[in-house]
Amino acid sequence: MNPDSQSTSARQRRIRQDPWPVRWGLILLAVAIVALLIVVPVINVFAGALAHGLETYWDNLVADPATRHAILLTLSVVPAAVALNLVFGVAAAWAITRFHFPGRSLLVTLIDLPFAVSPVVAGLVFVLIFGLQGYLGPWLREHDIKILFAWPGLVLVTAFVTFPFIARELIPVMEALGPDEEMAAVSLGANGWQTFWRVTLPNVKWGLLYGIILCNARAMGEFGAVYVVSGRITGQTDTIPLRVEKLFQEYNTPGSFAVASVLTLLALATLGIKVAVERKVHSSKALALADRGDRP
Amino acid sequence: MSSANRRVLPGFYLSLSYTLVYLSILVLIPLAACFTKAASLSFDQFWSAVWTERARSAYALTFGASLLAAGINVALGLLIAWVLVRYEFPLKRLLDSLIDLPFALPTAVAGLVYSSLYVRNGWLGQFLVPLGIEAAYSRLAIVLVLTFIGLPFVVRTVQPVLEEFDPEVEEAAAALGASRWESFRKIVLPALYPALVTGFALAFARGLGEYGSVVFVSGNMPLKTEIAPVLVVARLEEFAYAEATAIAVVLLLISFAMLIVINFLERWSRQYES
């Protein structure tokens, strides 16, 4: 760097630098807002959960069979919903980023649709279809298939609510990568699956993981939609967030906070992984752009 | 490129048809079912379900609280994004990653903790309630928890635009004699408008549909602190499916309108950038 440009950048910095009272005033204000809105509530969750000691906390988590069942239910519903959206996300990203077809931008908009729908309404539409008075209700009853108030219903609404996450993360990453490497693989004789597993997947793995993490976090925490379709049968269709609400309604505040603390830990872990993966996604996107000769 | 791709790369019909089938089964057909159910009502039935006094006050509260919260989010989001982009300070990275917590934290947990923080014997309520500020089981509680839920939206839309902002523009303004405040108001802020409006719309749309957190903090009193999604659930629990559906259709139409507006805004801000 020559002295000329050094003085320019110093001047730039001086011009864009606010006087220190403004600077520190704004920083403190921002920190205070985040502390009040985010940090204090998080600490409060753990304080509430541990208010009666570690032993009570542990009992609240594992001694209650209904809570144990809720944890197991969430652990079986969430992976199923995430897996459904994972297959969809990959298929949608492949179709949208590798081919042009009429209605492509409409399709991209439609993928976002579930984000705009209130979770309660999402639950309601499935009640209208699978409920006893619903369109398929009588037929399901005849054949003794349980969807509503049971595991399949929970998976369906959870998949609905988290529908866009993986596709939305994957599409920009695959767009940035471009089809060149895949075309090369195919022209060298690879078949479709080989191309996907050996070329596409290694390139997009971080973007994909990022989408899975976001989808997973949202699926774990889903409340409104599950509330409507689960029937809230204690020990049968209560997921972890529903269990939090039920304990709260039963005035078992420490129990409710104990279960909430598990969800909070998961949220904090999600944030941690997200930060780590985000860096990888950025660097892989930048690499892809650099490879193609564009500026990152 | 497109037709060439289709000849070279495999899987076009497989991936597109899977996408369309899954989208239809999970999203489009269920939403259409909601509309056909509502269409089976006569106009009078529909109107008497969606335009009761209780429903009107629920819409007004849902709209008012979401608007107010999204407005607060614009101010807070601009401040936080500015601080994160322009200043260096200890633990900045931690602050940056904490902003996303409302995205990651289940809404039920947010509702639970916000309802306990602001009651009379809560951590913050013990100071606020004696001052007459009831931030639990009130309309204020709804605005507060929606502000929490929507906080990341404005920060995350403004932050990248501010990062890309060309420093030479501000330099030129300073060289021409503008003060810092003038150059912020007349140069930087206008460039942020599209991002601010987009963030506002996203936070507003999220607030309109929010249920999990509000149901904990609001107390859910009809005509007072009952929001529209809570009313839908209340009708469902009375097995009044038709009425629940009618109100749900109103909410759906509003969501679709918001989706179109947000799409338009995002296109607008992209134009602005280039």
Walk me through the structure.
The complex is a heterodimer of chains A (296) and B (274). By secondary structure, chain A is mainly alpha-helical. The model of chain A has no long low-confidence stretch (mean pLDDT 89). Chain A contains 14 helices and no strands. In chain A, helix 6 runs parallel beside helix 12 (224-230). Chain A has helices at residues 3-16, 20-49, 53-62, 65-98, 104-116, 119-130, 137-142, 151-161, 164-177, 180-187, 192-221, 224-230, 240-249, 253-291. Chain A is globular and about 60 Å long. Chain A has two domains: 16-49; 53-291, MetI-like (MetI-like fold, Orthogonal Bundle). By secondary structure, chain B is mainly alpha-helical. Chain B has two domains: 1-40; 42-273, MetI-like (MetI-like fold, Orthogonal Bundle), CATH 1.10.3720.10. Helix content of chain B is 78%, strand content 0%. Chain B is built from 14 helices and no strands. In chain B, helix 7 packs across helix 9. The longest helix of chain B has 34 residues, at 53-86. The model of chain B has no long low-confidence stretch (mean pLDDT 92). The chains are: A mainly alpha (296), B mainly alpha (274). Chains A and B meet through helix 1, helix 2, helix 4, helix 5 and helix 6 of A and helix 1, helix 2, helix 4, helix 5 and helix 6 of B.
What is the structure about, briefly put?
Chain A has 296 residues and is an all-alpha fold. Chain A has two domains: 16-49; 53-291, MetI-like fold (Orthogonal Bundle). Chain A has helices spanning 3-16, 20-49, 53-62, 65-98, 104-116, 119-130, 137-142, 151-161, 164-177, 180-187, 192-221, 224-230, 240-249, 253-291.
Question: What are the salient characteristics of this protein?
Answer:
heterodimer; A: 296 residues; mainly alpha; MetI-like fold; 2 domains; 0% strand; B: 274 residues; 78% helix; globular
